[in-house]
Specification:
There is one protein chain. This protein is mostly helical and 339 residues long. 61% of the residues lie in helices and 2% in strands.
Length: 339
């Protein structure tokens, strides 16, 4: 088994956990429980990173870690031992850490980067009046999306080029070089992953994580100072349903039209608790979510009073506020976690 992957997984035991949690986070499961776990442990960089990971493989790794005494059992979970920490200090590569604070998956990052590359290539060829060229991607969906973006009233080719140059210049040298060398246009063919892996003398595992980190850093830095890149990102966000599960996205559309959770439940023939779970998912995933709008003022004020006492466990709050709607509790807790 690849030693780098082993060390990556071992590092996740720096907080008490188990293979069930690790597996569901790595494949990007979007249940409220998993989203809460990611937020609590600050595991955003791990989320959806290896969607093809095998649960059995993780179970075998955990058994191996136990046998080597790099982890130990603690209250039905497992955590690093002092020896395990020593192993990480010797073998763990900090370059593997991805600077993500959102619920982005590896698949989404690659999708954004493929789109970014395609637009850059088309704009470059257009500027130099090159009509005969082969698009970097053969995906008809991505090509169709690119055509729509290029026709957008606010899209400007020259400004796009300027923003791409400025963005690459903001990235650390090696990461900027990695991404810029994959770009193509005006007869220039971008380097492949294998070529860049050899150029930087990196293992396939380290290169994958370094590239994921570079793309995430680029995403983190797209703001109002980059209006053209923001257009692309807005397209990608909408195309990916804003990182929501399909059912939650449908609920979000109802809510955006002013329909109440109880009315949505009746319309969709779902339990009200299911709609509440959708709202909790939105709260975790959407950056500008309004927590207060889903908590009655009187309930919010009472939750605030209890929170100030210092013990805000669900069981303790339920003793003092009954009946307690779990959605209200979780939304309030999340708001406080993110302050």
């Amino acid at each position: 088994m690849d030693q780098e992957f082993m060390m990556y997984i071992l590092a996740m035991y720096n907080q008490p956990t188990n293979t069930g949690q690790i597996y569901n986070v790595l494949i990007g499961r979007t249940t409220p429980t998993m989203l809460y776990l990611v937020e609590k442990k600050q595991w955003h960089g791990h989320f959806g990173l290896f969607n093809d990971v095998n649960r059995k493989q993780l179970d075998q790794l955990q058994e191996l870690f136990l046998a080597k005494e790099t982890i130990r059992s603690v209250d039905k979970k497992f955590e690093l031992t002092a020896f395990g920490q020593q192993q990480l200090e010797r073998l763990f590569n900090p370059a593997w850490l991805i600077p993500s604070m959102g619920f982005f998956t590896a698949h989404y990052r690659q999708y954004v980067w493929d789109f970014f590359q395609l637009i850059t290539q088309i704009v470059s060829e257009k500027i130099f009046s090159n009509r005969q060229f082969s698009p970097m991607t053969t995906s008809p969906t991505l090509q169709s999306e690119a055509k729509l973006l290029l026709k957008h009233a606010e899209f400007d080719s020259e400004q796009w080029v300027s923003e791409v140059v400025r963005m690459v210049e903001t990235l650390p040298d090696q990461l900027g070089e990695l991404l810029s060398n994959e770009l193509a246009g005006n007869g220039v063919i971008g380097s492949t992953d294998k070529q860049l892996q050899a150029h930087f003398d990196l293992s396939a595992f380290t290169f994958f994580l370094k590239k994921q980190g570079a793309i995430q850093l680029l995403l983190n830095r797209i703001d109002d100072d980059f209006p053209q890149l923001s257009l692309l990102l807005a397209t990608c966000e909408a195309r990916s349903m804003y990182h929501l599960s399909p059912s939650t996205f449908e609920t979000a559309q109802y809510l955006s039209n002013g329909i109440s959770p109880s009315a949505i439940a009746r319309e969709r023939r779902l339990k009200l608790n299911t709609i509440h779970e959708h709202i909790i998912e939105m709260a975790f995933v959407l950056p500008d979510f309004s927590y207060r709008s889903f908590i009655p003022d009187s309930v919010y004020d009472r939750l605030d009073e209890i929170y100030r006492t210092g013990d805000f466990s669900y069981s303790k709050v339920k003793e003092q506020l009954d009946p307690l709607v779990f959605m209200h509790y979780r939304l309030f807790e999340l708001e406080r976690m993110r302050e």
